[in-house]
């Protein structure tokens, strides 16, 4: 279940595709309109589904549906070097940390449709772009 050459979310086919040896290969099927994914250090995946929820796929194939607190998870998904995963709530107002037990916690709130999300190169903060404010906001990385 590795995505050696990178991976992408395919909303039409509801799967995550990986580039392996120059060809697209399905890595995860049966998702709910995926729009973003990261591969965790242990070889699993966390997928943001704009159709609802966040899917955690562990290396052994076990799936955990997380993100029940989201209105609409968006394409903004990022991961720290230590494997902490953060996702925007595009249909809501928050940026949330995904907990590997299936829960999540808000790390920032009050945005108007956050859509983009990256971690700064020094790993000290998240940057989120929003549709509503048409701005980029810096969120100190919570401990």
Give the tags:
143 residues, mainly beta, four-stranded antiparallel beta sheet
- Please state the structural category: mainly beta
Extended strand count? 14
User: Uncertain runs with pLDDT below 50, 5 residues or more?
Assistant: none
* Number of separate helices: 0
Strand order in space, largest sheet: 4-5-6-7
In terms of DSSP E residues, the strand content is over 45%
Mean pLDDT score: 91
Rg, Cα atoms, Å: 14 Å
Tell me the span between the first and last alpha carbons. 30 Å
Helical residue percent band? under 10%
Which helices and strands occur, and which strands form pairs?
Blueprint: E1 7-10, E2 15-20, E3 23-28, E4 34-39, E5 45-49, E6 54-57, E7 63-66, E8 73-79, E9 85-89, E10 95-98, E11 104-108, E12 114-119, E13 125-130, E14 136-140
Antiparallel strand pairs: 1-2, 2-3, 4-5, 5-6, 6-7, 8-9, 9-10, 10-11, 12-13, 13-14
Provide a compact summary of the structure.
By secondary structure, the chain is mainly β. It has strands at 7-10, 15-20, 23-28, 34-39, 45-49, 54-57, 63-66, 73-79, 85-89, 95-98, 104-108, 114-119, 125-130, 136-140.
What does the model show?
It is a single chain. The protein has about 140 residues and is mainly β. The protein is about 0% helix and about 50% strand. It is built from no helices and 14 strands. It has strands at about 5-10, 15-20, 25-30, 35-40, 45-50, 55, 65, 75-80, 85-90, 95-100, 105-110, 115-120, 125-130, 135-140. The protein has a 4-stranded antiparallel beta sheet with strand order 4-5-6-7, with no helix packed on it. It has a 4-stranded antiparallel beta sheet with strand order 8-9-10-11, with no helix packed on it. A 3-stranded antiparallel beta sheet has the order 1-2-3, with no helix packed on it. Strand 4 and strand 5 (about 45-50) form a beta hairpin. The radius of gyration is 14 Å and the shape is globular. The model has no long low-confidence stretch (mean pLDDT about 90).
């Amino acid at each position: 279940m590795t995505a050696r050459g990178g991976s992408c979310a395919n909303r039409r086919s509801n799967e995550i595709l990986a580039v392996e040896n120059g060809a697209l290969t399905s890595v995860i099927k049966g998702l709910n309109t995926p729009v973003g994914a990261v591969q965790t250090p242990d070889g699993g995946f966390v997928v943001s589904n704009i159709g609802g929820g966040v899917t955690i796929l562990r290396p052994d194939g076990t799936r955990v549906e997380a993100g029940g607190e989201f209105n609409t998870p968006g394409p903004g998904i990022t991961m720290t070097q230590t494997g902490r995963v953060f996702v925007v709530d595009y249909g809501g107002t928050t940026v949330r940390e995904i907990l590997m037990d299936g829960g999540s916690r808000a790390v920032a709130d009050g945005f108007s449709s956050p859509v983009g999300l990256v971690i700064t190169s020094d790993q000290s903060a998240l940057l989120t772009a929003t549709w509503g404010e048409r701005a980029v906001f810096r969120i100190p990385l919570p401990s």
